[in-house]
Amino acid sequence: MPPTPAHWVLDANILFSEWGRWLMVTLADAAPANLYWTELIEEECYRNLVRLGRIHPEDASRQRRVLSTHMNAKVESAPGETLALDLKSVHEKDRHVAATALSLRHRHNTPVGLITWNIKDFPKRALLKLGVVRYTPDELVLDVWKTAQQGLNGLQAASQNMILFHAECPVMHVTDYQQKARPLPVSENDWLEFLGRNRLHKLSRLLTKG
Question: Does residue 95 contact residue 87 with C-beta atoms inside 8 Å?
Fold first, then answer.
């Protein structure tokens, strides 16, 4: 594996998790790395959030106007179809995500990270040959945080980033899902339970090492 790339493309399933967004921001600050997605990725994310009742349509529109600024991310133009021809190993519906990473790979002449939970449709070895390094969030955290204290500090920073965002862009129409949402963890034990629910098992093990 190459060193942690300095440019990361976030898939829609990463942006889908509100807390997960701020985890990416915190990791990018520590790495350091630049964050990217496209309007198509963002549209897919918010369309599903609204469809599942996790956010009100008006709040979704308000968030979309300011999200990239708050996350210090760049929204890229859709990549050309020519790049997709090099990505036949990637599931057709997801090639636009990999093509965005490949476009950045060509632009910066350096490996680019593709962050996703969807490991089935983004084959790691095939992408690595093209200079695109696929990570799940759980894999990425171990590339950036090496100690339990770094992990705990980072989790607390991610929560603080999320709280600050809500202070500046508050929810105006609370959905049933948001009303039932659990509070953010406070203690280390709370974090371990939270990480287990959110598939961050490697990070959970890092915290328990002390």
Answer: yes
